[in-house]
C-alpha cells in the first residue's frame, strides 16, 4: 500500500487518523489493495522475464561448450582437433603481422619471427625466405610456417610416443576447456551485475549484455585454442610420468590464479579509481605476481571489460 497505493488513499488515512493495526473495510481500500497486488505481480513477472532472458544467453553458450566437451570425451584420439587448432592459431598469428591484402611495406616480419619463437618455440626464417624469394606471398609464407610447426610437433610425438601424446592432448584440451569456461562464467557474472547501468547511456541493457556476452564467448574460444597450442608446442614429454606431473602443475597454477582473481573480485573498487588500484592491475604488477593477462582477456579488477579497455589500456 505504501509503495503502490495512490496518494489519495494515503491522504484519507492520515485525515481519518486511523490507528495502527485497525482493520479497514471499504471498497476504495479493497480496490487499492487489488491494484497494488496487480502492480507487484506485474513487477515480479518482469523481473523473472528479464532473468530468464539473461539466463538464455548463458544457456546457449553452455550448450555449445558441453557439446564440444562431450565430443572430446567420446573420442580417444583428438589429434585432428589439435591440428585444426594449431593451423588456426598459426594462421591468425601470421595475419596479425602480415595483414592480408596489404603491401609488403606494412609487414612486420621481425615481429612475426619473434612471436613464433616466444609463443611456440618455433624458429621460422621468414626474412630469409622473403630475401631469397622476393615473389613469395603471404599464403605461401603461412603454409611454410604451418609445415615447420607440424614437423616440430611430430618430433615431440616421436619422442614421447604416439599413445602417451594422444592421452596428453585429450587431457589438455579438456582441462583448458574447463578452466577457461569457469573463468568465462565469472566474467559473465560480473558483466551481468553492472549491465543495467547502460540504461543511463540510452542503451538497451539486454542487447548490450547479449553483444558483450557473445564477444566474451568468442574471445574465450580463441584463448582455449591459443592456450592448447602454446602448451603443446612448448612442452617436452618423454613418458607417462611427465604427463601426470604436467597435469598436476596445470591444476595447481590454475587454482592459484583462480583464487587470486576471486580475491580481487571481492575487494571493493572505487567508482573514481585511484593510483594504487591502477598500479595493482598494471602489466608490470601482474607480471611481477606471475600472472599473464591477454589483451582480450577480462580485466582482473572485475569490471567486466577487456583488459585492453581497462587497466591494460595504452595511454
Description:
The protein is mainly alpha-helical and 315 residues long. The chain is 70% helix and 0% strand. The chain has three domains: 7-46, no CATH class; 77-257, Helical scaffold and wing domains of SecA; 267-315, no CATH class. It has helices at residues 7-16, 27-73, 79-97, 109-120, 126-132, 138-160, 162-194, 205-234, 240-266, 275-280, 283-288. Helix 2 runs parallel beside helix 8 and helix 6 (138-160) packs across helix 7. The longest helix has 47 residues, at 27-73. The protein is elongated and about 100 Å long. The protein starts with 6 loop residues before the first helix and ends in a 27-residue tail after the last helix.
Annotated CATH homologous superfamily of the largest domain: Helical scaffold and wing domains of SecA
Residues in β-strands, percent: under 5%
Uncertain spans, ≥5 residues at pLDDT below 50?
A: 257-277
Query: Level of helix content?
Result: 55-70%
Structural class call reads mainly alpha
Q: What count of domains describes the coordinates?
A: 3
CATH architecture of the largest domain: Orthogonal Bundle
CATH class of the largest domain: Mainly Alpha
Biggest sheet record:
none
Order of helices and strands: HHHHHHHHHHH
The name of the CATH topology of the largest domain is Helical scaffold and wing domains of SecA
Q: How many E strands?
A: 0
Question: Distance between the terminal alpha carbons, to the nearest Å?
Answer: 53 Å
Shape: elongated
Average pLDDT figure: 76
Amino acid at each position: 500500500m505504501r509503495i503502490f497505493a495512490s496518494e489519495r488513499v494515503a491522504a484519507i488515512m492520515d485525515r481519518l487518523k486511523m490507528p495502527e493495526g485497525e482493520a479497514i473495510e471499504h471498497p476504495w481500500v479493497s480496490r487499492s489493495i487489488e491494484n497494488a497486488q496487480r502492480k507487484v505481480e506485474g513487477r515480479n513477472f518482469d523481473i523473472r522475464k528479464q532473468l530468464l532472458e539473461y539466463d538464455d544467453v548463458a544457456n546457449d553458450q553452455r550448450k555449445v561448450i558441453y557439446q564440444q566437451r562431450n565430443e572430446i570425451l567420446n573420442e580417444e584420439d583428438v589429434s585432428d582437433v589439435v591440428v585444426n587448432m594449431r593451423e588456426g592459431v598459426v594462421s591468425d598469428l601470421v595475419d596479425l603481422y602480415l595483414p592480408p591484402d596489404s603491401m609488403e611495406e606494412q609487414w612486420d616480419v621481425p615481429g612475426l619471427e619473434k612471436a613464433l619463437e616466444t609463443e611456440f618455440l618455433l624458429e621460422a626464417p621468414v626474412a630469409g625466405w622473403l630475401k631469397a624469394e622476393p615473389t613469395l606471398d603471404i599464403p605461401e609464407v603461412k603454409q611454410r610456417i604451418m609445415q615447420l610447426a607440424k614437423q616440430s610437433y611430430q618430433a615431440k610425438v616421436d619422442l614421447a610416443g604416439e599413445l602417451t601424446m594422444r592421452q596428453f592432448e585429450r587431457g589438455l584440451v579438456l582441462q583448458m576447456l574447463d578452466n577457461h569456461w569457469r573463468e568465462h562464467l565469472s566474467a559473465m557474472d560480473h558483466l551481468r551485475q553492472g549491465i543495467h547501468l547502460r540504461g543511463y547511456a540510452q542503451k538497451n541493457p539486454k542487447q548490450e549484455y547479449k553483444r558483450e556476452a557473445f564477444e566474451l564467448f568468442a574471445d574465450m574460444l580463441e584463448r582455449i585454442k591459443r592456450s592448447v597450442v602454446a602448451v603443446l608446442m612448448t612442452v617436452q614429454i618423454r613418458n607417462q610420468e611427465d604427463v601426470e606431473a604436467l597435469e598436476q602443475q596445470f591444476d595447481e597454477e590454475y587454482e592459484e590464479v583462480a583464487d587470486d582473481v576471486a580475491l580481487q573480485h571481492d575487494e571493493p573498487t572505487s567508482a573514481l579509481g585511484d593510483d594504487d588500484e591502477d598500479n595493482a592491475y598494471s602489466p608490470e604488477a601482474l607480471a611481477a605476481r606471475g600472472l599473464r593477462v591477454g589483451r582480450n582477456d577480462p580485466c582482473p579488477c572485475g569490471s567486466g571489460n577487456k583488459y585492453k579497455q581497462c587497466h591494460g589500456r595504452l595511454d
